[in-house]
Amino acid sequence: MFRRREVTVLRTGRPEGPTGIYIIDPVRSTIGFSVRHAAIACVHGRFTAFEGILKLDGSRPTRSEIHLSVQTGSLDTGSPEQDTHGTGPDCLDSATFPLMTFRSTGIRDAGDERYRVAGRLRIKGLELPVHIDIERGRASRDVHGEDRVGFVGTTVVHGSDRGLGAGPAPATGGSPTGDEVRLTLGICAVQVRRAESA
């Protein structure tokens, strides 16, 4: 687990936006996915166990960094049968590869508080390039005095390219799910304070 006292907060003068180290709040964040089922409906799910760090540079947002780790065994589609298949050897194989990780390698300003994040997704022993389109939310201070930031992001991966098979099996027969998997991020993160990093 990431520990706040192990991180040094970075500040650069008077930034235009949030600056410093932020730890993702898993209670107020979501990592979900959807995959086409039988070319008609979508199978939706989420991961319930994850953690991550944002290193934000408010004056130069394109120099910020994102690091994320997801426990593949925490897949939840609302269907035990689909969960078993999705975490099994034909898909995520969580017994062999318990973690899926992402680290950013570059951020490009796309205008209107939007950014395109290039990075490396490590899944099932492979590290592959992906792009996440991010829309930055507002920063705020909550009732406990914690400084928070939020953003939403989306990316599309193809199961066959990642060795994931065709995605979770249908609950009741029919055609298999599609190859295109859309991942969605709804992230809320809290800033690490100097006193906590000492």
Descriptive notes:
The protein has 198 residues and is mainly beta. The protein has one domain (4-197): Lipid/polyisoprenoid-binding, YceI-like (Lipocalin, Beta Barrel), CATH 2.40.128.110. The protein is built from 2 helices and 12 strands. It has helices spanning 80-87, 194-197, and strands at 20-24, 30-37, 41-47, 50-56, 65-71, 75-76, 99-111, 114-123, 126-136, 140-141, 147-158, 177-191. A hairpin with a 2-residue loop joins strand 7 and strand 8. Mean pLDDT is 82; it is low at 1-15 and 165-177. Residues 70-81 have a biased composition (Polar residues). Residues 70-91 are annotated as: Disordered. This is YceI family protein. Residues 21-190 form the Lipid/polyisoprenoid-binding YceI-like domain.
CATH topology type: Lipocalin
Helix-strand pattern = EEEEEEHEEEEEEH
Structural class: mainly beta
Q: Helical content, roughly?
A: under 10%
Low-confidence stretches are 1-15, 165-177
Distance between the termini: 18 Å
Helical element count?
2
Global outline:
globular
**CATH-defined superfamily:** Lipid/polyisoprenoid-binding, YceI-like
Return the CATH architecture.
Beta Barrel
